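Proteins fold reproducibly. Look at a sample protein:
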Amino acid sequence: MKKLLKVLQSRFFITVLLMLLQVIVLFVSIGLLAVNFSVYYVLTMIAAVLVIMDIANDKMNPSFKLPWAILVIAFPIIGAPLYILFAKSKQTRRISKRFRNYRTLMRNTLPNPDDPISEIEKTEPEVARQMKYIERTAYSPVYRNTEAVYFSSGEEYFSSVLEEISKAERFIFLEYFILEEGTMFNTILDILKERVDAGVEVRIMYDDIGSINKLPKRFDKYLESLGLKVSVFNRMKPSLDAFLNYRDHRKILVVDGNIAFTGGINLADEYINGIERFGHWKDTGVMLKGEAVTKMTEIFLQLWHFSREETKIDYGDYIGTIKCPSDGYIQPFADGPSTDDLTVEMCYMGLINSATDHFYATTPYLILDNEMTTALCNAARSGVDVRIITPHIPDKKTVMAVTRSNYRTLLMSGVKIFEYTPGFIHAKNISADGKLAVVGTANFDFRSFYLHFENCVLFYKSKCVDDVEKDFLKTQQESVEITLDSIKKKGPLYGLLQAILKVFSPLM
């Protein structure tokens, strides 16, 4: 009863309830207009036809068009208003304009590194082409003079974070999708308080929905009372606004502009197996030292200024001061709904299409659009060894069901799929031909590719590439391979449910 009462009193429940009331009012209003059924029916059909024409001519991905079209055709009275309300939001255009302004100011402020892409192009034109695309769409140069360390577990990541933030002298920036009080975050917070007392500037940004049921009320005010600067990204409001879908899914920690951490790890105890929620939690991360941290700092500041609607741009005040021996070529980059370029998805597809021997990926969610499915299937059919590891123990049963609905098509084309049996795998890693690797925050799903603010790091000729690949093969040994026979044994009803989930997965 206490748990139920806590849920009913939570801000998340109250906000969702108010939004549902708005939906009810909308539908009741539509119903009242339908008193004269014949006239209203004709108007509804005309509106539905116009909406379908708009869907057909819209630039949105076909995977989004199909469920919207089905909804509008099957339920025109509610489908058309919902499409106009959620799919035609003007927010994206507004945030795109603001981000363009930040990018212009950033390019005029930050130092330009040397351009190693031209030298890569002489020996590896395909790699150079991939890097050029990221550089042009995400304004992300390729860096040398940077060291990289790969962490195959949240425990290793956490230990290194504690060591580095305790040595901070100028500033610490933190940006995470999830914060939750517990051993991990409280230990970090104790060090942050010490650093603030020593004169270090600390900024922390977290996503409101990602953390909404995990933190006490007015937690941001508590952090500010300790001397930290705080931004809560895109606060959840009781408003039928498509902008609520745009979440900050990034995980970034920067120390003095010289050291940066990223990967799949949030600041909550399950990520370091301090508590057990879904069996053993498998996650990964990386630490960068040197020039490439400049881009990580800028990625943080860009969303920080956007979240707080600040006009003062301070990129130039947070440049790093160290250079390290080059560990190959390193390209941090970010993506989000603020641009028309699907940089993360196109990066993933570029690595799939350029692979000649093998392509390995780990992801907690496998919810694919037609283009990504085609790329994976074509790679496997052409002889590339394509392997994907997903969780065996889900954190969300519905999402896991959608993930498994994508298995059949991939398996029929020769893609090998494994499920991590000890528990939940949250790592977002890619390895292509043992030559290129990506570690970051983006899943293989619609939300990461289209709706979330994400960040990743591309590695070439770095020891991280070998580390990522070795970790994948080790994880595969702890996983069970999924076969077509095992799916067929589940029966036709299971197949029908999967087909329905697959069609509507872009709207989830």
